[in-house]
Amino acid sequence: MKKVAIVTATRAEYGLLMPVIRELRKYESDVFKAELIVTGTHLSDQYGMTVQEIQANDVRIDHKVPVSVKSETELDISVNQAEVLVKFTELFLQQKYNAVILLGDRYETLAVAIAAGNTRTPVFHLCGGDTTEGALDEWIRHSITKISYLHFVTNEESRKRVIQLGEVPERVFNFGSTSIDNILHAADMTKEEALASIGLMDCKYAVCTYHPVTMESGDVEGQLESFFEAIQAFPELQFVVTKSNADQGGAKINELLNKAEKRIANMHVFTSLGVRRYLSLMKYAEFVLGNSSSGIIETPAFHVPTVNIGDRQRGRLVSESIINCAADTASIVVAMKKAMSNEHKLVCKTVISPYGEGHAGEQIAAKIFETVMNGGIDLKKKFFDLNFEL
Q1: Which tens digit of pLDDT belongs to each residue from 148-180?
Q2: Torsion sign (Cα): 325, 323, 301, 145
Q3: pTM here?
Q4: Domains of the chain
Q5: Are 90 and 114 contacting, i.e. CB atoms less than 8 angstroms apart?
C-alpha cells in the first residue's frame, strides 16, 4: 500500500488544496491512499473551527493534530512550530507515508516540512517560487522549496525562480493555480444566494481581508483605522470582511475588526466564509479590498478589480486589474474610486489570468500518483547550477 499525506492548517490553504484532494482520491484503491491531516486553526474556536466546513463537504479526515495557534509574539510562533515539529515527526514515523503534500508558506507548514525531512519523507510542494516581500512567508516559502522533492508552481516566473534555487527542472511543474480550478467548480452560488447566506439583501458590496504585514513592525492600529475610515467614505457600499489568519498580529487585527463592526454600519465581519461562499461573493463584488493573496490570484480571473493595500503582496505576479496603494486613508480612497470607475472596469474585462486555465488539480494529482507508484524517489538531490556570470 502506497500512502500520501495532505496537510492543511488554515481555511485559505484548504481551499487551494481542495482540487488536489478531490482528484487524488479518484486514484484510491487497495494499493493507494490519500490521507488528509487537519491541524492548526482548523481546530480552533478562535478561528472559526473550520474543520466543520471540511466535514460539511463530506471530505474524509484521516488525522486531526491539535496544536497551539497563539500568535501574539515571536515566542508564540516558535512555540507553535516546536509543537508542530514534534507531533508531525511522531505521526510520520508511525504512518510511514511515501510522500507528504504541502502548500505555501506558513510557519507551521515549514515545521511540517522539517518533520518530513527528519523522517526522510519526500515533500511535494505547491505554490513555491512566488515572492511576497512584505511577509515572513517569503523566506519560509523558499526554505520549504529546498526541502521539497517535487514542485508544483502556479506561474512561469515562479517556475524559473524554483530552478534558480537549484531545483532540477524535470521536477518543477507549472500546471497553474488550483484557485482557478475553484473558480470553475466552487463559485456556484448566485449573488442573491451568497448575500442571503450572510444576512444581506441584494446590494453593491466589496469583499475585504486584512492580514498582518509580518516583515514590518509598524502601527497596526493606525493602519486599521485608515482602512476603517476608507470604508466609511463609501456609505453606499456594504463591506464583507473576513478575519485575519494566525500570523503574528492576526489576533490583534481581529480584535480591532470586532470593535469596528459595532460602530461602522456598512461593515460586516466574519471569522470564515468557506471556499464556496467566499468565491461566490467575490464573483459579484464591486471590488476586493485588502492585502490577501486571493486578491492577486483569484480575483482577476473573475474580471473583478482588486485594491491591494501596502507591501504584504509586493513581488507577486500581478494583473492589470490590480490597483496597488499605500496604507493611508487617502490612498485607499483614491484606489477604491478608481476600482469603481468605468475605465477600470473595462480594463478588468480583458484581463487574462497568468495563473492557468483551471485544470491544475487533475494534473498535479496525476503527477503525484505517477511518481509515488513508480517509486525510485532519491532524496539525495543534486543542486542544479545555472550558467551565469557575475
Answers
A1: 999 999 999 999 999 999 999 999 999 999 989
A2: negative
A3: 0.81
A4: 2-175+359-374 (3.40.50.2000), 190-349 (3.40.50.2000)
A5: no
